[in-house]
Design a protein that fits this description.
heterodimer, A: 19 strands, globular, B: 250 residues, alpha/beta, Rossmann fold, six-stranded mixed sheet, binds adenosine-5'-triphosphate, binds magnesium ion
């Protein structure tokens, strides 16, 4: 390890030692108890496990079908030496390579700002421990012809700390898919931080698909800085893991920047999924649009907290936010809190949250046309959830998610025709 | 085909249907008229199996079956179809998908094979012509953003696709313009057959100019208070309901 990296790592570790992991006494972590995580992983929860060899078949099984993309595979957080041929103007270097070859760039990827919203000790751990990831640079004006597909497979217990960085030049356009899956029967931790920097008029479509194995823990964070006229379109999905927490913080710091944050959590059993988002309107005439949907069955527990802050001088802000939840069982629980803080004058803001059950009139209508009750419920549940996916730009990704969502509904396989 | 005997039904403990007797045979068309709030929609909802109604007395026989024991979908499989007075919007559920799932469930129940996509689409196209239904409407989510008249037409379109044995049309003519009324009536007439029965709830005798009924009933305050032929509808149009109510009181 080079000296500057060692210093940066040590400093981050110190921050972690001072701050510790967030506890439920912290307002932002009130409903998500990480002691479950430390209890399972013990004192060594930060120890990265070693990459296991995965046969080609398993990798294909776990991949999104019919997706034509530049694929990078990470197994237990380690990049597998198989870099796709990328077009000109697109550079992707594994963090593990940068750490030995280019300390400056590696340091940039590991950047950490304790003042960013929703900062916590886990981020410091990631900065101190992250051993691999994808550092993606798209040059000015380059429009990537196919998605960059980062497939993460967890095959064993232990923790994987992953750090990705996406730097988009002026007017560049790309679609990046982070896909998290696993086949491990042990509890492990996937811990990812992704930094995104969008220069003027850059556009990034970012899909974050969490479909981990059922005992896995998953901590994620996406930190987005946007300059003028840039656009960020995010879809964050939580279908897997025993406990997951994903924070997305977007700073709209240039005139006329816009972001779309959509999300879907579809969980059951004793799954727990927590989504915190924070959007800072720090410049005039920016637009943010957020729709998160949740479907909960069994004893599942979901948390949604979306905070929008309109800073002084951010006139012409247009911020819309909504969170809708469907509870399919009496024992499922959701804590939802849309928050709005406005320090500017000329703003258009709307936010709202709903928690409800299936609409009985709609249910009866479908039954009266011949659908049995279970199918009718599934159809309505699916339609509710699918509403969060309508802005996805990749049809194969959307189809994959729809199929995965249907699989999680009782007798949902019978409805595969719907997608 | 359908025999209703002394049917009493209430909602939230309030009695709405107060002893309905009605018999409808295959091949017949019956019209039910009556003042607002008299229980016409309640009757059709009870027949279709909508939850929330308590049947406190009486019985409904449908082709030798105890209708009230069947779930809403079982009634649909047995050939009952209700065209709703206020069709609900179902965003995200495609019309075509709904009809395919519904039709195949009905066919399965009858022991017929499920239709593949091609055969199904040719039925859809044929029925679209029958009721002059716009393809773009058929492709959209169920009733989402449909105008009042478009919703009614969609109900008739669904009826045409599902080919029920007993169709109950709850004020399907309300909200239709004159041309649409003719088209819808034409669709209903084409469906008329020896094996089918149709119940039309309406406020306007105009509909009966296009679809000639075998009987006209007046439902008032939860009871059928008068039954006649087509001329009864004409008389109601001229004189209103008061005289019928007077007559029954005496
Ligand atoms: N869910 C309910 N709760 C309370 N009252 C109800 C409910 N549903 C129906 N009613 C009442 O039952 C009565 C009959 O209603 P219904 O809809 O059957 O009338 P209708 O004859 O179809 O009237 P219209 O001609 O206006 O369509 C009305 O007084 C109505 O307010
Ligand atoms: Mg009515």
């Amino acid at each position: 390890m080079t000296q500057p990296i060692k210093m940066l790592r040590d400093a981050a570790w110190q921050v972690y030692e001072q701050t510790g992991l967030p506890t439920t006494r912290n307002e932002d972590w009130k409903y998500t108890d990480l002691s479950r995580l430390t209890a399972v992983l013990g004192e060594t929860w930060w120890t990265p496990s070693h990459a296991a060899d995965l046969d080609k078949e398993t990798v294909e099984e776990q991949s999104i079908p019919e997706l034509d993309a530049y694929r990078l595979i990470f197994i237990n957080g380690r990049f597998q030496e198989d870099m796709p041929n990328l077009p000109e103007g697109v550079s992707v270097v594994p963090l593990s390579t940068l750490l030995v070859s280019d300390a400056d760039k590696a340091a940039k990827a590991l950047e950490m700002d304790e003042k960013t919203p929703l900062f916590n000790g886990a981020i410091a751990v990631n900065t101190a421990m992250a051993s691999d990831g994808a550092c993606i640079c798209i040059a000015d004006g380059v429009k990537l012809d196919k998605p960059l597909y980062l497939l993460h497979v967890a095959t064993s217990g232990g923790a994987s700390h992953i750090r990705h960085g996406i730097w988009m030049g002026r007017g560049a356009t790309a679609h990046v898919i982070e896909h998290y899956v696993g086949n491990s029967t042990d509890a492990g931790l996937t811990h990812n931080v992704t930094l995104v920097h969008l220069d003027e008029a850059a556009t990034l479509y970012h899909d974050r698909l969490q479909l981990e194995a059922e005992k896995q823990f998953h901590l994620g964070r996406v930190d987005v800085k946007q300059l003028r006229n840039s656009r960020f379109v995010s879809h964050s999905l939580a279908l897997g893991a025993a406990l997951s927490r994903v924070d997305i913080a977007v700073s709209l710091s240039g005139v006329n920047a816009s972001c779309v944050l959509n999300g879907l959590y579809l969980i059951g059993g004793r799954q727990h999924a927590d989504h915190h988002t924070r959007i800072d309107h720090a410049s005039p005439d920016c637009t943010s649009q957020e729709t998160y949907k949740g479907v909960l069955s069994g004893r599942a527990h979901a948390v949604f907290n979306g905070k929008v802050v309109v800073h002084e001088g951010a006139d012409g802000t247009d911020a819309k936010q909504s969170n809708g939840n469907l509870l399919l069982s009496d024992h499922a629980e959701v804590d939802t809190k849309p928050e709005l803080e406005i320090y500017a004058d000329e703003v258009k803001c709307a936010h709202g949250a709903t928690v409800g059950q299936l609409d009985l009139e709609q249910l009866f209508y479908l039954q009266s046309r011949g659908l049995d009750k279970t199918s009718a419920k599934n159809v309505l549940t699916f339609a509710f959830a699918d509403d969060a996916l309508t802005q996805m730009i990749s049809a194969p990704v959307r189809r994959y998610l729809e199929r995965a969502a249907l699989k999680r509904l009782p007798q949902g396989d019978e409805l595969q025709e719907m997608v | 085909m359908l025999k209703i005997e002394n049917l009493h039904a209430s909602v939230d403990g309030k009695e709405i249907l107060k002893g309905i007797d009605l018999e409808i045979n295959a091949g017949e068309v019956h019209a039910i008229m009556g003042p607002n709030g008299s229980g016409k929609s309640t009757l059709s909802n009870v027949l279709a199996g909508r939850p929330g109604y308590d049947v406190t007395e009486g019985a409904v026989h449908y082709n030798d079956k105890n209708l009230l024991e069947l779930s809403p979908e079982e009634r649909a499989w047995e050939g009952i179809f209700l065209a709703f007075q206020y069709p609900v919007e179902i965003p995200g559920v495609n019309n075509v998908y709904l009809l395919k799932a519904g039709l195949n469930a009905i066919r399965k129940h009858r022991g017929e094979s499920e239709l593949d996509a091609m055969d199904f689409m040719s039925i859809i196209r044929e029925k679209m012509k029958l009721v002059d239904m716009d393809e773009s409407l058929v492709r959209r989510s169920v009733n989402e953003g449909f105008s009042g008249g478009e919703k009614k037409r969609n109900e008739i379109f669904q009826m045409a696709v599902l080919e029920p044995k007993l169709a109950i049309l709850d004020e399907t003519d309300s909200g239709l313009d004159i041309d649409a009324l003719k088209v819808v009536a034409g669709g209903v007439n084409k469906l008329r057959s020896k094996e089918r029965a149709i119940v039309m709830i309406t406020h306007y005798q105009r509909l009966l100019d296009y679809i000639e009924p075998d009987a006209v009933h007046v439902l008032a305050d939860g009871r059928i208070v008068k039954t006649g032929d087509k001329s009864l509808a004409l008389e109601l149009e001229k004189r209103g309901y008061d005289w019928v109510l007077e007559e029954t009181r005496v």
